[in-house]
Task: structure prediction
Amino acid sequence: MNKEFGDLNKAYVVVYGSNPAEQKWSLYTEGWGSSGFTRYDSVTLAQMYSPWFSSMPGNNNPANWNYENEKLDELTQRIYSGEFNDKDERTSIIKDAMKEGVNESVRIFLASKIDQYVVNENVDGIINALGAGVPSRFTPINVRTDSGTLDVGVKQIYQAAWNPIGGLGDTYSNQIWLSISDPILTGHPFSGEMIPIRSSWEVETNGINSSVQVPNDAIMWNPDSRMWDKVGNEISAKSKITYDLKFNQWHHGPEMDMNDIIYSVYFLSEWGSERTEDDRTYDADFSPQASQILNTLKGIRIIDENTIEVYTDFWHFDSGEIASWGSVWSSMPWEIMASMEKIVMDGKSSFSRTESITKNINWLSLIIPNDANQVKMQLDAFEKNEHTPDALIQFNPQNDFQNIRYDSSKKWIDENNHAVISNGPFYLDRYSPDSRTIVIKSFDYGNYVFEQGKWKEFENVKFPSINSVEFSEPYVINSDEEIRVSAENASEIHYFIVDSKGEIILNGIKEIMNGEASINLDENSEIIEGVHTIKIFAASENVLKPYEYSKSFIIVSNDKEVPKTEIMTEIKKSETNYWYVLLIIPFF
Result:
């Protein structure tokens, strides 16, 4: 056995970049971290087990030998795209996909590591979110120090390219990116429910088997004619979402506007469309995922300067998940996106690692001066040729809006030596590879939409707890004795009675009223004599981290005499971690 040690940069080339048929590696140990928290994880099974997601051997690159599994593809795409009728069916599909993934064991999970973080006592406002932990995007936004600066130590400063299409895929860059870029919405750091960041929304849906009418003036991008076409009559969708977007300045000065949103929908449509021969708008990493969203998109309708309707064939029993799926947003100005797109289409660079290695070209990274200069040169060419992207011409007939964007982006690149421009509470000030430092600064000169302290409520979240569990021991069958549970910050309890063989003989859910809940074992005829264990989990809809109580006890019939010997009981109280990840990203 030949052991080789390296970081993610090396893994990108040898493991994720090479053709498995070349057998450059046999076994690879990797680590993953989560960047957020969601109530219903639709990504992880596809990411870890399924070929279509482009993270399995071969990376879905047609030039490589590729691991194939049609069953996993079908199951995980159903989870990802919301192809289920209710919670129970979704759970069943997840179980089937997990079973198939474990049976195949192309990727094997060995251990779950809990990272420890040390924080200076003079730093306030740390948000230890579920899933992401201390490095959650809310921590750098919310922290307070006497000096006004925060120094963060990280293992690596640069492991992957900085571009929002096929880069920013490692833990280290992603944690910084989430501080300088605002999403349209995100999962609540403790409940996982979708919460608004840069938009409020309203969802209209009539269920999985019904539909809403798509207006005939809604539009879709046509990759062949390179125009926006009206969808026409008699088009329906499972869901309609109306987004009221909250714009502010981009870091380089100009205001965000609907052109940025239109271009992002165009980009999804162009790069997610069916692949053709010599297709220059196809990326082996990005396009398969984009196509899943595009396949459900039935049209968009611009209402005013900050309101847009999205019609989609996606449905979920949680309306927040529908809003997340249909969300239209942009993390970078349209002119930067257009410049990157032209550079990639011309074959000078690639969006993704896979395309970079396959075509032996540069992996586009906006934080690198040479790549930023490439973007600037393309902006120069756009301005010189009075170029307006096809996707924006129909919405800007005067053709007099683009130069201020081109000039602002070029000026930013000249002054900052990078092309990372976004819309969040911080902006990227400088990157110094020699000193292994990245500096981000508060976006104070812009009209950022939130004041400091917006997320302060997440600092001291109240977790569920069980104060006491009381009942007579031994428990006598048919005594109508109740097990009384006192709990705090919980909405319900889940209880399980386990026999001496470890089998569950009774379980149920009880609602907590005024901090109290009761369990009557005599409601079930399967209760028998013997030594049993009761496990109680106090749960909350607001914080998805239940509290566990466990105790062994004896059940006897009402005519049974209990031996006069001391019965040893054990009470175990613990806080149990349960979480689902929003996005899982590699860190070495």
Q: What stands out?
A: The chain is about 25% helix and 20% strand.
